[in-house]
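Agenda item 2: zinc ion complex prediction
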Amino acid sequence: MTAPASVIPAVIVEHDGEALTLEDAAVLAAAWPVREALKAALSWAHVAWSKRFGAPRGLRSGEEFDAYTAEVAARLRAVEIDPAPVLLDFAQRARVLGVSQGLIEAGAPQQNLEVWLREETRRHIDEATTSARAKLAQAADLVEALNRGSFKTINRQLAVADQAGNLVERAARTVTNAELNEGLADAAKHIGGRLLWIAERDACVACLALSGQVVEPGDVFDWRLTFGAKAYQPKDYNTAGELVDIELERPPRHPYCRCRVSPWLGHDEATARAVTHDWAQAIKDAQANGDQAAVDAARKAAAAAQSSAAFDLPAALRREAERSILRGDALPAESENVRLAAADRLLARIGSGKNSPAPSGWRVPASVKTRAERAVKRGRFTR
Ligand SMILES: [Zn+2]
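Presented output:
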């Protein structure tokens, strides 16, 4: 767990869940038909093989074998891949959801903003469709090119076709997240707020470095920030369909990234000062009465009220991100070595001073530092 619920406001956690539900529905609607059609083609191939040639391991060749592979290839080529209408619909829904969530997160009244899908979204869907169709064609060609083989051989070539479903799924997740974040940015712009990057719970070492970063809508986040060894510039398709370097406007930073932005109006320093002022009077009164216990209680309450009214979410997110690197939290897909190297680099930046602060400014408790140093030395984090 990288960002405990105590740091991320409950409303954002809830919105995250809504967004994931929409994303999953987009995957189901777009990729499921492709996968079902492929499954049907594969199951036809399996049954037809048994009928014509018997055992799946038997080696076959000749005219009958060629006729069989030609038919498998034809069935693969007949699988329709046209996720665009469904994906555009879900992209639109994600955009509207983003606007609505952003207004709620900023405490602003609901409003229908006029929005147009991003050009990149259409391009992304087109490119994914082309790539998925190419995978099918490639699998068909591979099967047809076989002069002899067993069903096992054919099955191996068919694995290429499976990637078609994966490509459609990846596009569904990418475009829903991109449009969701675009909607959140629309809301921020509408209310005059800035954009706060909130890393997902199991963010990678690259995305963690962006958690708590704030930019003006229209500005870009710094893709060079990472706790990892090297930062990678994000890429997207240009109008010519080529994959080119782009600036990091907002999440997703990479495929399957579920970070999000939230409109940020700044923490409430005016309220914090007002609250402190009220308590200052209480402290004065208690002092006038000579009641030391009341003075202490009022001081304590003043400090608590000030820190809660002035709760600086960006700072809290940056602190949590660094804490999570030092603890070795990471998503299962990320290797322990990546996490250890990230912790080692962060420790070096913190330095060896007794009270030396982390880059984002908080004083790292000695116990947290010692545990991280031991993990790096040992070569593994204890769970
Ligand atoms: Zn991310």
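Discussion summary: The pocket of zinc ion is lined by residues 199-200, 203, 207, 251, 253, 257, 259 (CB under 6 Å).
Owner for follow-up: CH.
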